[in-house]
Write a structure and sequence with these properties.
Layout lengths: L9 H7 L10 H15 L1 H12 L4 E3 H4 L7 H13 L3 E6 L2 E6 L1 H10 L6
Antiparallel strand pairs: 1-3, 2-3
Helix pairs in contact: 1-2, 1-6, 3-5
Length: 119
């Protein structure tokens, strides 16, 4: 009999986990969530998320984002790829351009991980 292993993305792991205040995270859950938190801990990536989310129509391509940074287009594309790879951004190729859109459910899941935290 074969055993199947369920592989979750960082976003799926956050979505299935209880808030931090309810029970301790397992080592496995923490290792899966860390890349998601690490991705948004970078100031450029955090700004990119905000810029994409607040852009007209809720989506943007690299050409829409270049002027907001003193970075090269390949560097911005790299940061967008990191955000996409962890599930925070969705993307769609149209011709030669790739358009990015916020995966709002992923942000809700990150927020729910910290849910219930009070002073």
């Amino acid at each position: 009999m074969s055993k199947s292993v369920l592989e979750l993305t960082p976003v799926q792991t956050v979505a299935c986990c209880s808030p931090l205040t309810q029970e301790p995270l397992t080592l496995e859950a923490a290792e899966r969530i860390a890349p998601l938190v690490k991705a948004i801990a970078d100031p450029v990536r955090l700004r990119l998320l905000s810029l994409v989310a607040s852009h007209e129509g809720g989506e943007a391509c690299v050409c829409d984002l270049n002027d907001a940074f003193d970075l090269s287009q390949p560097t911005i594309s790299h940061h967008l790829k990191v955000l996409h790879d962890v599930g925070l951004l969705d993307r769609e190729k149209r011709g030669v351009w790739v358009y990015y859109r916020l995966n709002a459910a992923a942000l809700v899941d990150v927020g729910s991980l910290l849910g219930g935290v009070t002073r």
